[in-house]
# Entry
Amino acid sequence: MQHAKDAIHGANPAHDKTSMVMPSTGDPDTDFLRGMIPHHEGAVEMARAEIANGTDPKIREMAEEVIRTQQAEITTMRAWLAERRAARKGS
# Structure
């Protein structure tokens, strides 16, 4: 079983600043979303660790909200990126 501290503070590539450095596409909107998706995925992982290990009902509720909102935003960002790619292919 993973220790709660490890689950929240362990090796998480989404929150490793060096992993968030990626070559620019030349499109600031695309670059922003490409960086935000792993950031949001990391927040979801941390919230899941809280739900699995936390004991404070208010904080667990907050973690559930983080999961709901961040996953919805990830879906929106991925859809926008897919639309952008499709539009560029059609140009």
Observations:
- The chain has a mean pLDDT of 85.
- The two ends are 51 Å apart (CA to CA).
- Residues 57-90 form the longest helix (34 residues).
- Residues 3 and 76 are 33 Å apart (CA to CA).
